[in-house]
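Hello,

Following up on my earlier ticket. Below are the two sequence lines again, exactly as submitted.
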Amino acid sequence: MAAEQPPWTLTIPSDLRLLGLARAFVEAICQVAGLDERTTHAIVLATDEATNNVMRHAHQGTPDAQVQIQCYVRPDGIEIHLHDEGQPFDLSTVPDLDPAELRVGGRGVFIMRTIMDELSCHPRGERGNILRMVKRCLCRSPYSAGA
Amino acid sequence: MELLVEKAGDVTVVVPKAEFLDANTSREFKDELPQALGEGGKVVLDLRYVQFMDSGGCGAVLAVLKKLKASGGDLKICCVTNPVRALFDLVRMQRIIEVFKTREEAVAALGK
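Thanks for your patience. The regenerated structure is below:
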């Protein structure tokens, strides 16, 4: 059995002005994986929510911190890891809020949970967390000829 | 962010000339909109140019809605693109704010 290819990786400063770059990176990978427009938009939206959560909450607007996005493309789906440098974060403490309430914030995690098939967060060594998101869908290998 | 402001009777129509209304640009939107609206009142937000919106964009729109409602005004949305409609369906935005296909329908709804 062939070893898994290394993930496609983007590392950016923790600056909200770079959200578009994070979206473009994931969108390009979804396109290479042959995903349809609807699925691509959903994965891009979930990644945007995860990235802006890290920048605003985990890094609290500190541009010196780095956000790393890793994408694994597999035949049965896309797995995205977000590495942050923030304090330990327990995703299970984020309540399931009704998004249809007239409330200004609190929809980001709802969007990620709704779009992705798996969502979890684990500590990363002494500092930081890894948010793991999986979307199950049929993907074309980006490494095969004609991809 | 450039905001086009037009009048349709006593309704103010605001058109953000922006491709993205996200956690970054929504800060500009929230800062600049009050100046564009002036007194507030009845407002239609025409989202024809917005190709991507996230929860930050939703929050900015809902902050405006809350403010307008608190002062007796109201806000309707029109002309959403497919990606924005997908987001609105996901977060059930239509249960909080009315969304119309055309600007004329949105303006008419505020006149009722």
